Amino acid sequence: MQPDTILTANKSLRDNNLHRLLNLIRLNGEISRPTLSTASGLSPATVLALTNKLSERGLIIEKGTANALRGRRPALLALNPADSYAIGLMIREYETVGSIINLHGSIIASLHWNLNLAEQSEHTIVCIGKLVEELISQNQVTCENIIGIGCAVSGYVDSQNGICVDSWQLGWHNFALGPLLSEYLHMPVLVSSNVSCISCYENLFGRGQTYQNFLTVALGRGLGLGIVLNGEMYSGSTGGAGEFGHTVAVVDGRRCECGNRGCLEEYVAHRGIIATYSELLQAGGFSQSEPTLEQLLQSPPDDQMASLALRKAGRLFGAGLANIVNLFNPECIIITGEGIEYGERFFDPTLQMLQEQAFSRLASSLPIILEPWSGYESWTRGAGALVLSQLLFTPAK
Ligand SMILES: [Zn+2]
């Protein structure tokens, strides 16, 4: 497959039609050319020419035939899961995981390396590049089969230019990850915040498929927000939208790693909830070393200090959700991340607070989906979905 012709940013009408047809095939699973023609508004001759092109490039296959009242039964077209792939990378300061993702958003293979990437240098680019090369060679895939590389990183990312503007966890500031890695690998490289990647996955393949306007909240080591408006990702004028974790929850509150005070993340993400638990233990005269998240989450239900810490954090999180509901009036909120493990001692107060604080009836029939967390695969398949979303499929729906 020669990816450049369909994948260029040069969106001629013809290219847009290729993307549109590919997306219609994705949304329908299997679809005949006549139905594609009706759904797209393109003439049967154009649909035939463009689908032949998609087939030549290995992106679609014929899969059985459709029923027909009379005459020849038309072939059904489907995405080809065994030719073209995206690679999704989860990049953290001490570990990087790469996964090969097929056009259905499923992970084919993954590679996990412990890499110290807490510096923005050529060494970092070489380490990530070698992981990608090893992942490709281990799985008998050729570079021609790879549509592009998606990188999920924490912090504020200028996705347009592939620049990690500020990642406090990685210690990267104005790091041109995308261009440098693209130069090393000779492949398209896209970079986005990890919650935006997850949001891309939800939009293309996950629970967001049936919604036009929904929010994805990732709670764990940090707190981020992915925004889908009118079926498309919204990332703000410079890519900084969705910094939910750095909205102010407590004026003059705890110092956040971003440098500001009182950010919501400092109260509901891992370090925040542990800090609250620790403060409660100290105030209660239980002098002990800093508790761990495991101790908090594995505490028995009648452990009052642990339950209070979870309740306090859950209420603040619920107030935060009410704020974003009031701002966006979404059709649905998907909550995911390692923080799903906080359990009902956290989420019951969250949902109660959301109902209490949301304006008028904005939250009264709002679906809140607690999406189980699949560990690093949630990040990598999200990063792969970013590539598929931007380079193959036009904005869904
Ligand atoms: Zn902050």
UniProtKB/TrEMBL annotation:
Gene3D superfamilies: 3.30.420.40, Winged helix-like DNA-binding domain superfamily/Winged helix DNA-binding domain
Coiled-coil ranges from the UniProt annotation: none
InterPro entries, per database record: ATPase_NBD, ROK, ROK_cs, WH-like_DNA-bd_sf, WH_DNA-bd_sf
Database matches in SUPFAM superfamilies: Actin-like ATPase domain, Winged helix' DNA-binding domain
Short name of any one Pfam family annotated for the protein: HTH_24
Family indicated by similarity: Belongs to the ROK (NagC/XylR) family.
Name this protein carries in UniProt: Xylose repressor protein
The organism's taxonomic lineage, starting at the top: Bacteria, Bacillati, Chloroflexota, Ktedonobacteria, Ktedonobacterales
